[in-house]
Structure formats: structure tokens, C-alpha cells
Design brief:
By secondary structure, this protein is mostly helical. Helices cover 47% and strands 4% of the residues. The chain is extended, with a radius of gyration of 18 Å.
Length: 89
């Protein structure tokens, strides 16, 4: 018999150690920049995730994805285009 384990909370974000996935992405970005350029970027490696986590606490969940959509970097799948005025169900 196969046993399927469900998370305790369905809306709980994915975490690695104590960091959420978007915070971890900023940490990896800072690390890559520090490895490539060195110097001041080693400090940026720690300041970038710290500043993002403080900014993130003042906005609702998912604001980074919506911001990237508004800028035009990534699409939101399953949603109409930003400039679409008429909808047909």
C-alpha cells in the first residue's frame, strides 16, 4: 500500500532551512556575483537577501511574481493579459 503524505498546511511556502525559495534565489544570485566579481559583492551577498526579506514582510504573498509580471519579465499562466479589457467566460 502506497502512503501519500500531505503537508500540514497547504498554503505553507516551500522552505529550505529557514529560507523561502525566493529568498534563497537572492542568496544564490548574491553568491554567484560574489564569486564572479569579488570585493564589495561579498557584502552584497548578505545584504541582498536581508533587504528583500524586510521588504517582503510589508507586502502580501506573491508580490514578487506580480511585480515581475507587471514589469514584463515573466507571464502569469492561466490569467488574461494585463491590458485586456473584455472577458468572455
Amino acid at each position: 500500500m502506497n502512503e501519500v503524505r500531505f503537508p500540514q498546511y497547504l498554503n505553507k511556502p516551500f522552505q529550505i532551512l529557514m529560507f523561502e525559495s525566493d529568498e534563497l534565489a537572492f542568496m544564490v544570485l548574491g553568491y554567484v556575483l560574489a564569486q564572479r566579481f569579488g570585493g564589495f559583492f561579498w557584502i552584497i551577498m548578505f545584504l541582498l537577501p536581508w533587504g528583500y526579506s524586510r521588504l517582503k514582510k510589508s507586502y502580501p504573498r506573491g508580490f514578487l511574481r506580480h511585480t515581475l509580471y507587471f514589469i514584463g519579465i515573466t507571464p502569469l499562466k492561466g490569467y488574461p493579459h494585463f491590458f485586456q479589457n473584455k472577458f468572455i467566460d
